[in-house]
Design a protein that fits this description.
alpha/beta; Rossmann fold; N-terminal domain of TfIIb; 4-stranded antiparallel beta sheet; 7 helices; 33% strand
Length: 260
């Protein structure tokens, strides 16, 4: 990883279009639908750990894990600045062993796209299953298959954000960034221009992206063992606002699993 992943503040700015409190509302709503009342939560590939920090604000014992040392340091600083307690761990999402279990584990923002092989995805799922409390849930957010397989992607590759007088323009992927049909990996060229505080700076990098289909995810879950799929959703609507994965309005592939 390079560029935007080496600047956690810029990465958090780029993702600030997301409504994290509303997403946590949905995550907890799904827990309630499946008779789970989590007291502890682990966010994997957490980056700035925004979701873990929001869970902590709501009284859950929160932990966050990421491979990037800069992201981990930033997440710990921001949790302290927010006055919440988040246990931040630098580790690999395919090999971690924290010596404890959690009622809820989440992986957000399509972070499973950083798992480049089936072996890596299966290893990840096995580590998740080993860290779930009895009856605990794993919720993973991935890109919708339409984004790579369809002619009409669900999400835009370019967007702008504004926060605290700072303007960010993000381009995640260029027209020439083609998905390799054999490996299902694309090298996404990322450019972010940040304007504010009297100046402009540009971050550039290449982010390898592994596309996972719905059937591949299902196969990986079966190979890993220890997890049962409870439901899949097409966005963060819960209850009456739930959107099916097959709905034309779906823009994410969110899978809810329980430890078998």
């Amino acid at each position: 990883m390079s560029g935007i992943y080496d600047d956690p503040w810029a990465y958090e700015l780029a993702c600030s279009f997301r409504d994290v409190p509303a997403e946590v509302d949905a995550l907890l709503g799904w827990c309630a639908e499946h008779d789970a009342k989590p007291a502890s939560v682990l966010e994997l590939a957490a980056g700035p750990a925004e979701h873990a920090r929001e869970f902590a604000r709501r009284g859950l014992a929160a932990a966050a894990l990421d491979l990037n040392a800069e992201m981990c340091a930033y997440a710990a600083r921001e949790a302290a600045r927010d006055g919440v307690e988040v246990a931040v761990v630098q580790d690999d999402m395919t090999r971690f062993d924290l010596g404890r279990r959690f009622d809820l584990i989440v992986t957000m923002l399509d972070s499973t796209s950083h798992l480049m092989t089936l072996d890596a995805l299966v290893a990840h799922l096995r580590r998740v299953a080993a860290h779930l409390s009895p009856g605990g849930l794993y919720i993973v957010e991935m890109s919708h298959p339409r984004d790579r397989l369809g002619d009409d992607p669900s999400v835009s590759t370019g967007w702008t954000v504004e926060r605290g007088g700072v303007h960010g323009s993000v381009r995640w992927g260029e027209p020439g960034d083609r998905l390799d049909p054999v490996t299902q990996i694309a090298d996404d060229h990322v450019t972010m221009t940040i304007t504010g505080d009297g100046g402009t700076r540009v971050l550039r990098g290449v982010v390898p992206y592994r596309f996972w289909t719905a059937t591949e995810l299902d196969a990986a879950i079966r190979l890993a063992g220890g997890l049962d799929v409870l439901a899949q959703h097409g966005d963060f609507g819960a209850g009456q606002d739930a959107v099916a994965l097959t709905d034309p309005a779906a823009w994410r592939m969110i899978t809810i699993m329980r430890g078998a």
